[in-house]
Amino acid sequence: MEPGPAEADRQYAMAGYPRILSAIILAAVLLRLALLTYGEQRPTRFDFPDSHRYLRVARNIADGRGPIDSETVRAGTDPVYPTLLAIGIKLGAESDEAVFRFGRIINAAFSIIAVLIIAALARRIGGDTAGLFAAALMAIDPISLFFNGLVLTETVYVTLLLAAVYSLSRLGGSRAPTFALVAGLLLGAGALTRSTSLFLIVVLIPTAVLIARPRKRWTCAALVLLGSAITIAPIVIRNYRLFGQFVPVRTGSGPSLMEALGSWADGGPGMDRIVYPPIPESASEVERDRICRAAAWDWAQSHPPEVIRLAFVKLGRTWSPFMHAEGYASGAYQAIAAISTLPVYLLALVGAFLLRRRPAELLLLMAPVLYFTLVHTVFVGSVRYRVPMMPMLFVLAAVAVEHLRGMRRSGRPAARGD
Fold first, then answer.
1. Which of 14, 157, 215, 287 has its CA 20 to 30 A from that of 328?
2. What is the pLDDT of residues 323-336, one digit of tens each?
3. Residue 418 clears pLDDT 60, i.e. is over it
């Protein structure tokens, strides 16, 4: 029997999916090669203070001293990204420029993987068109692409988070326990890449419970926690041996809070403006961190109106469609940022509305967005801290595009992909 028009259309679409995805991947590779070339020609354009800190830690790791900044700061940096840079040093990258080049290559490799993962995630939630549209957004988004050139944690963290979210989306199937454990391992690795994501592990547990089949719900939740614990435990044990107390992931939250909460705070980055409280010379790294953290909270408790005002400023900075960083305020940069961001915001709102009757999938995508938004109403706000949230919006936007395409072709919404 010949297939009907709808089935024939579906077979054609399935046959075309690999070809189109391959073209998107090729475009992503070419764009990243162009960025690597541009970075070689204009390295100062991609010079960022945190990159030099990661480099110092990477050199210490390569020399066998572990993930330390210095003898007085022994747990001040999330260890995963410097460990990746240390591989480049071990492979022969000696100069700072060579290590930074290796970091950009690592970023490019991870970002290509992220394109493949987001395609699979969006296809699973929305369908073939959704998968391709989300992959295309991930491949060409100018801000995401720009962060490929920065020797920072964003690109690696985004890939780990996407892989974890995709694994969680598979908890409704027969291999749910395996995917739950993998999701936990990935979330733990993410926390060691960006420590502000540590409590995202707990926030995503309700998603695991909702997606998994009733008989496997609590098993999956436990496996997510177990996987995370397996990944994080070695660094927690290391820190306990160093300091004799529990230090999850790293120190440094005190100065970061002071940057965001104080009379000098304006909602954006500004470590150079902090007026530190008196700190005894004999204070340990953990004690210095605790003193700074207490000073920030003391100021917040005595200035609640200012804390609220700053929270809205930070929210606006994080979600602004315009760039705030020095050197990127020209009309061209602002136009590119706005054109690439505002349509995604609009489509993502439509996608979220369309998923309102699929709460597990909606929560899966929105939990990271809400979590990081909340985190950066406390800590400083910046477009940089929006980068891990954007892939979730890309998927929501892709769901909207799939729906609109289905309505245009058949007068009804497109069917959900498998």
1. 157
2. 877 777 778 889 99
3. no
**Rounded Cα–Cα distance for residues 233 and 188 (Å):** 9
Q: How far apart are CA 256 and CA 234, in angstroms?
A: 24
Q: How far apart are CA 330 and CA 345, in angstroms?
A: 22
**Residue (of 108, 114, 68) closest to 395 by Cα position:** 114
What does DSSP assign to residue 6?
Answer: H
Can you read off the two tokens belonging to residue 45? 């354009």
Write the DSSP assignment of 27-63 as a string of letters.
Answer: HHHHHHHHHHHHHHH-GGGG--HHHHHHHHHHHHHHT
pTM: 0.93
Question: What residue type is assigned to position 319 of the chain?
Answer: W
What does the block give as tokens for 88?
A: 């480049």
* Residue labelled with tokens 């920030």: 296
Q: At what angle do helices 154-169 and 359-378 cross, to 10 degrees?
A: 150
Q: Using only C-alpha atoms, what is the Rg of the chain? A: 22
CA distance 284 to 243: 8
Nearest-10 crossing angle of helices 390-410, 96-126: 40
- Whole-number percent of the chain with pLDDT over 70: 94
Q: How far apart are CA 204 and CA 107, in angstroms?
A: 26
Mean pLDDT of 29-49: 92
User: What does the block give as tokens for 54?
Assistant: 């990661």
When pLDDT is averaged across residues 243-248 and rounded to a whole number, the result is 93
Written as six digits, the tokens of 113 are 């993987």
